[in-house]
Amino acid sequence: MFSVFKRGFASTVYKLDTLAFVESAGGKISPSSLSSLNAANQIGKPVTAVVFGPGGESIAADVSKIPTIQKVIQVKGDKYEHYLAEELAPTLKEIIQSSSYTHFLTSASAVGKSVLPRLGALIDSQPVSDILKVVDDSTFVRPIYAGNALATVKSNESVILASVRASAFTPVDATGGSAAIEEFSSSAESGSRTEFVSEELLTSERPELGSATRIVSGGRGLKNKETFDELLEPLATKLNAAIGASRAAVDSGFCDNSLQVGQTGKIVAPELYIAVGISGAIQHLAGMKDSQTIVAINKDPESAIFNVADIGLVGDLNQIIPELTEKL
């Protein structure tokens, strides 16, 4: 930040350096985006947020209330409604190159993971994916080898692109700010032949899996969809918890793939994670091992899940889960 003096009075001018992409879901700011804004703040430069979509007015207004945001850019247009990366990336390139942005951050969501490599190709910059920690404005910590090791990496790119693991950063407070909102009219042509066809959204009264403080997850040990629903639903209801699953459970058709926890699913770090009938494959552990308290229930005492569990219970889950639910 620097001050410009003109004709006897001072006005403050911000050099806008970090651009943060803010997603929305259900008319609200995505929790993962609130976490990625925390990472953007830690870079130590003024932060500008960018919001896309035809209904972005209310989201832009909500984002402007975040105290650490200096400015909100709103990009309107029906083509941005479903966050197609083929449409977002050319416009983001135009925004970045139209100002002095040195950093671009997005959450490591499905949208962020799709947008980041395309944007990197367009501006010829190597992205840093899934960061867990900001060391300084060019140095970050990220997981490698399925989360079994952490690497500290330094980027020498003129524009640093990074995606943020939401579970590693607390969400920013979304009240108290009053950032200016500006509209951006893009002249970028994507030339994309990708067309949005349809989507099927699961509606649930339960907490959203990626931001839930309590999660009950089921694995192959539940045998079938009927047992999965019969045992986990009542337990999750008693705990007001989200329901998750291992890839084995998803592949077996026990539940929708949006509930998958793991390296190829959602990365979570709740206060309480209960793993029911999950053996503990390395890909699943990569997605939940940072949970504060891990409870494992499995009939096999040699299951790998017990290596990361704080509390382990060996036994028949068909007897244990109903008894636990009843006592709760």
Q: Count the strands?
A: 19
Question: Which spans of ≥5 residues are poorly predicted at pLDDT below 50?
Answer: 1-14
Task: Report the sheet with the most strands, covering strand number, pairing sense and barrel closure.
Answer: 7 strands, parallel
Whole-number mean pLDDT: 89
Find the structural class using helix and strand composition. alpha/beta
Q: Give the CATH level 1 class of the largest domain.
A: Alpha Beta
The helix tally amounts to 8
CATH topology of the largest domain: Rossmann fold
Return Rg in Å: 22 Å
- The number of domains is 2
- Span of the ends, CA to CA: 54 Å
Classified in CATH, the superfamily of the largest domain is HUPs
Q: Topology, pairings included?
A:
Elements lengths: L1 E5 L2 E5 L4 E4 L2 E2 L2 E2 L1 H12 L4 E6 L3 H9 L4 E7 L9 H13 L5 E5 L2 H14 L4 E4 L1 E4 L2 E6 L4 E6 L5 E5 L15 E4 L30 E5 L6 H15 L2 E4 L1 H5 L20 E5 L5 H7 L4 E6 L12 E4 L2 H11 L1
Parallel strand pairs: 3-6, 3-8, 6-7, 7-14, 8-13, 9-13, 15-16, 15-17, 17-18, 18-19
Antiparallel strand pairs: 1-2, 4-5, 10-11, 11-12
Keywords:
single chain; 328 residues; alpha/beta; Rossmann fold; 2 domains; seven-stranded parallel sheet; five-stranded parallel sheet; 8 helices; elongated; disordered N terminus
Give your account of this protein's structure.
It is a single chain. It is built from eight helices and 19 strands. The protein has 328 residues and is of the alpha/beta class. The protein has two domains: 11-183, 3-Layer(aba) Sandwich (Rossmann fold); 209-327, TPP-binding domain (Rossmann fold, 3-Layer(aba) Sandwich), CATH 3.40.50.1220. The strands form five sheets. The protein has a seven-stranded parallel beta sheet with strand order 9-13-8-3-6-7-14, with helices on both faces. It has a five-stranded parallel beta sheet with strand order 16-15-17-18-19. Helix 3 (85-97) packs across helix 4 and helix 5 packs parallel to helix 8 (317-327). 43% of the residues are buried.
